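Protein modeling request. Please complete all fields; requests missing the sequence field cannot be processed.
Requester role: graduate student
Desired output: 3D structure, token encoding
Chains: 1
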Amino acid sequence: MTCLSFKGFNQSVWNALWILALPSVAVFLFAFFSLKKGFYYFFDPKHNSSPNLQLERGEFGPHSQRYNDLARLLIALSAGIIASLVNMLANEKDPPSRILNAIAATAPIIVGFFGLSMAMLILFMSLQAFWYEEYCHSPNHNTYVRWKYALCTSLGWTGLLAFAVGVIWFAQNLF
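Delivered output (175 residues):
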């Protein structure tokens, strides 16, 4: 038995949610309190009149593209891993090998990690795009308030963490 394997704990997709709940809330609270009450976040530095940012007048588009490319890569990898797991388990032959037994024992929680990663990253990309459009069409560019910033940040980082924990959990329980 490995350090990440608890009898019965690997048997539910929902256990992945319990593992990721605390880090997700911690990231949300950290991001939320990083901005002062009543403040908002500028997507584009060109809208900020702070003298510290005079040389950094830019657009959010290139940054958003990098964030979305990474999220899309993790979504594709997560979907591929889930599909491979389902395929391995669906095409199981008798008698199953030791590795196939290990995969079958931990598949629910691993599918939970990768499924949550996909869901959080899709929400991250969707909300970021929606709120950026709202921000761009606002006359004062003050619509991206701290709870939106915290939620978007939390979804992105927790989606990345869910992917990493899924890979580690899978590897730990296989070998």
